[in-house]
Amino acid sequence: MSPIKISWKSLWSKPLSSALNIMLIAFGTGILTILLLASTQISQKLDNNSKDIDLVVGAKGSPLQLILSSIYYIDFPTGNIPLKDAQELSHSPFVKRAVPLAQGDNYEGIRIVGTDSNFVRVYKLTTSSGKFWSADFEVTVGATVAATKKLKIGDTFFGAHGLTGSTDVHKTHAYKVAGILTPQGNVTDNLILTNIASVWRMHDDHEKEEATEQHQRSAHHHEKTEGQQQEETGDHEKETRPDQGGADSGREITALLIQYRSPMSVVMFPRMVNQSTALQAASPAMESTRLFSLIGVGVDTLQWFAILIMLIAAISVFVNLYNSLKERNYDLAIMRTLGASRGQLFQIIIFEGILLTFAGTVIGIALGHLVLQFIGAYQESSQARLSGLIFLGTEIYLFVAGLAIGIFAAIIPAVQAYRSNISKILSKN
Known about the structure:
Blueprint: H1 3-12, H2 15-50, E1 55-59, H3 63-72, E2 81-82, H4 83-90, E3 95-107, E4 110-115, H5 117-123, E5 127-130, E6 138-141, H6 143-148, E7 156-157, E8 160-161, E9 175-181, E10 192-195, H7 196-221, H8 226-240, E11 252-253, E12 255-260, H9 263-276, E13 279-282, H10 284-327, H11 329-337, H12 342-377, H13 396-419, H14 422-428
Parallel strand pairs: 4-10, 6-9
Antiparallel strand pairs: 1-12, 1-13, 2-11, 3-4, 3-8, 3-12, 5-9, 6-10, 7-9
Helix pairs in contact: 1-12, 2-10, 2-12, 3-10, 7-8, 10-12, 10-13, 11-14, 12-13
């Protein structure tokens, strides 16, 4: 019988002890797997979504919130900025390309983003079917949106006011799907893109409806003369009437994505925006690094916790094999008398440690992927959703670490088995 088979049968003879060791190793490996997958995916998402964007300009507030809302679309914007100010910055000699963003609506939790052709150039977008939006209320949807919402070319849908709610639906205009994007592997897979004019027109009509409803409620609850009522109605119409003739005065957008023209822009442009305007400039690289460093504190803590569990598992395997060796001294001595060599006894003990840690490592890695997939399925934001179906080449190091722990834990008992004195052991029995 080969040493591996003997080691396997020896482990099966003590199922409770073996199961405990495997469980400890699996638990530690599972935590390390989750941390490895999560940190890698988060880092990749941060890089993929912001790699071609040098700066984000928006309303005053939290720089991190501005980045999260305008690049990752997982937070609320800090406010709106005047279109006039944004246009002035777009024509700055420091700016190579400026991408306007207008947010405010969603479709079943998917953000509807108003923008222009510069957005397509920055993210290098292509369509798998249909075309990019051109007319008002035409949209081009991301690949994930089309798949999850079952949208096809020519389909129509109504957006809802706000970035997450679905109660205040805009019924005045329906969006029409003009195209579906090729999967990009970044945030655009989860967006609905249209032109900025569509967002403006939708909210102009929304404001007119609210003004009309407010006026009707006011007229119902307060007694007023016919002349007063007509005067107030005229005032409402004057306040809520959209700009005529395509004028952009008073218009607002959510943010502006900036690409620099030269290295000099890195130093000059953000300072100019923050000091000379009422707007705010935030660097995606700096804020993403700060965000990841905050996440990294918790990740490092959990990594040390998982390593501690692995060390406890190694000690447990060592104690198990050491005690097992004492119980099996006579059996090993009999094997020697039947022709087994010292090297074969050494191999049997080593294989026991390797089998325990290998089984625990495999179970732990599988468990880590399963748990992360379960977590991703219940994440509210599709932009930062994690997946357990992604397998990394670096996971091989977990197998190597598992085997190393098994060999390390078994080496002392294996050496003792190698050095065992057959005559002494048999004479005692």
